[in-house]
């Protein structure tokens, strides 16, 4: 019997790669995506396409109101998305407070409900935008909480393992891995501005473009005129 894996699927490049990694591991796939008040709908549409591509057993879409918290250019439309600096070390305005903590908690509950042994998240501590909830320290602490938080672990000895296969890879290495595994990057989106054409200048776009350059490949999604 195949093991089950829940994957936090944003519709972006990293989470799409995690879907490919979990599939390669032989898991039955249970992606979960979120409508959380982000300023763009495109990423959820992309997540639906990716889930269908991988023949997901179930694709859960959860609505939650993180724009009520505010404080991020991703959820607060009064804050402009800044132009990116892929080498930044400070925390940018696109950081959404506690987002990975909240999403992982939902994912953990979903994993317990479907009997999944694995919970994948595409966090990265090499090429990332300074987010504190992408660090391995955060994942270790969440794993400790997860081990105490579910009936599956505390009563039945069925630990749900948080999997971070991209944690120590550069963006170029992530793209090389996903390409080898057949990840459909043409279905993904990364732009914080969320248009049908990626802006090419926000943090996420610049990291993505640099990664494709490092991997020696051309990004298959469309960009605004003159970006490439």
From TrEMBL:
Which amino acid positions bind Zn(2+), per UniProt? 191, 199, 202, 205
Q: Which GO terms describe its molecular function?
A: ATP binding; ligase activity, forming carbon-nitrogen bonds; zinc ion binding
Which pathway does it serve? Purine metabolism; 7-cyano-7-deazaguanine biosynthesis
Classification via Pfam families: QueC
Catalytic reaction equation(s): 7-carboxy-7-carbaguanine + NH4(+) + 2 ATP = 7-cyano-7-carbaguanine + 2 AMP + 2 diphosphate + 2 H(+)
Q: So which cofactors does this thing need?
A: Zn(2+)
Per the annotation, how and in what number is the cofactor bound? Binds 1 zinc ion per subunit.
Tell me the residue numbers annotated for binding ATP. Answer: 9-19
Cite the HAMAP family for this sequence.
QueC (MF_01633)
Q: What does this protein do?
A: Catalyzes the ATP-dependent conversion of 7-carboxy-7-deazaguanine (CDG) to 7-cyano-7-deazaguanine (preQ(0)).
Q: How does it assemble?
A: Homodimer.
Question: What is the protein's name according to its record?
Answer: 7-cyano-7-deazaguanine synthase
Lineage, top ranks? Bacteria, Bacillati, Bacillota, Negativicutes, Selenomonadales
